[in-house]
């Protein structure tokens, strides 16, 4: 039970911690100063959302996100959100592939080497079906989270940071809503695909509460560290590097590799969501073949400057997702009425 619960917990965290989160850019964009309460609210909201999504997925024994989506948003809006989820997963996966190309350039490799490396790695991963993703999450994520926490706690001690928030200054508490909302669509897509594999409700509680607590603690310590060096962050595209400059070069190399794996696990979760949906249309097609076709279609799109496209798409997702977030948080109320 504990082992299975932790397996799902790492799947949730792997879906949520992309390069944006691990690098600190996403946290700084939403939180920053006066956000202690916002992060605590995010931790609570995130756990509730995971709990509800996994509970529905488990009860429906789903193998893709559509049955889960129907219950959350209702049959009338299902088609709209089905398209939204598909586009969200597609665009974010393209961005992750482009991110791998950019990471390759940082290490003096060709952009295309970075792109083809992640595409081939994803195809190999999906040759082992969903078990491949779960296995890599259980190896990589403890390293990524452990490394991140170690550096952040070391920085906290070195800088003598006070981690207790000033409760009189919490004007940014509303940031908890869009930050949680932005992370909901991939969770529905990925957790909707594993309903048939969850064996007990205890697994759900371990996964939901564990992932919420772990992400909450890391977010809080990370945000507190970034506040300490707020003046320097304008000079760094990746805020984490502003912290790492205080430490040996080996740490920078290790965390750069971990950042690539954060890109990889997010891309893998995106491909899983897309492929599980396509399997409902093409039942007999092997997972790895569908994954290959999707990834080959994505390669040319990595050159289109998706950062500009995402800057328009993400705010729209954030607003539309607030409805889904409200439905999930109020699920115990409206589900009883239903």
From TrEMBL:
Keywords: Membrane, Transmembrane, Transmembrane helix. It comes from the Bacteria. The chain crosses the membrane at residues 38-58, 79-98, 110-127, 134-155, 175-194, 206-229, 249-275, 287-310, 316-334. Signal peptide: none annotated. PANTHER family: CONSERVED MEMBRANE PROTEIN, MEMBRANE PROTEIN. This is Membrane protein. It comes from Virgibacillus siamensis.
């Amino acid at each position: 039970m504990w082992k299975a619960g932790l397996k799902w917990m790492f799947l949730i965290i792997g879906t949520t911690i992309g390069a944006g989160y691990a690098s600190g850019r996403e946290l700084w964009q939403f939180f920053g100063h006066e956000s202690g309460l916002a992060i605590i609210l995010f931790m609570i909201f995130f756990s509730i959302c995971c709990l509800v999504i996994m509970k529905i997925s488990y009860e429906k024994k789903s193998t893709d996100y559509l049955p889960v989506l129907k219950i959350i948003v209702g049959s009338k809006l299902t088609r709209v959100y089905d398209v939204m989820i598909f586009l969200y997963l597609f665009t974010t996966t393209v961005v992750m592939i482009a991110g791998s190309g950019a990471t390759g350039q940082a290490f003096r490799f060709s952009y295309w080497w970075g792109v083809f490396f992640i595409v081939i790695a994803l195809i190999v991963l999906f040759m082992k079906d969903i078990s491949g993703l779960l296995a890599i999450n259980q190896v990589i994520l403890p390293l990524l989270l452990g490394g991140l926490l170690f550096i952040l706690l070391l920085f906290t001690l070195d800088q003598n940071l006070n981690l207790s928030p000033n409760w009189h200054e919490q004007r940014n508490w509303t940031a908890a809503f869009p930050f949680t909302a932005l992370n909901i669509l991939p969770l529905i897509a990925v957790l909707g695909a594993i309903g048939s594999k969850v064996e007990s409700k205890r697994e759900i509680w371990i996964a939901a509460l564990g992932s919420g607590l772990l992400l909450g603690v890391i977010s809080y310590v990370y945000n507190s560290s970034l506040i300490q060096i707020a003046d320097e962050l304008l000079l760094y595209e990746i805020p984490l590097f502003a912290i790492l400059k205080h430490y040996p070069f080996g740490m920078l190399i290790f965390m750069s590799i971990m950042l690539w794996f954060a890109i990889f696990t997010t891309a893998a979760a995106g491909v899983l969501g897309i492929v599980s949906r396509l399997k409902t249309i093409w039942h007999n097609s092997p997972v790895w073949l569908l994954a290959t076709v999707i990834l080959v279609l994505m390669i040319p799109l990595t050159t289109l400057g998706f950062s500009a496209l995402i800057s328009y798409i993400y705010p729209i997702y954030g607003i539309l997702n607030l409805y889904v977030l409200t439905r999930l948080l109020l699920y115990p109320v409206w589900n009883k009425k239903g």
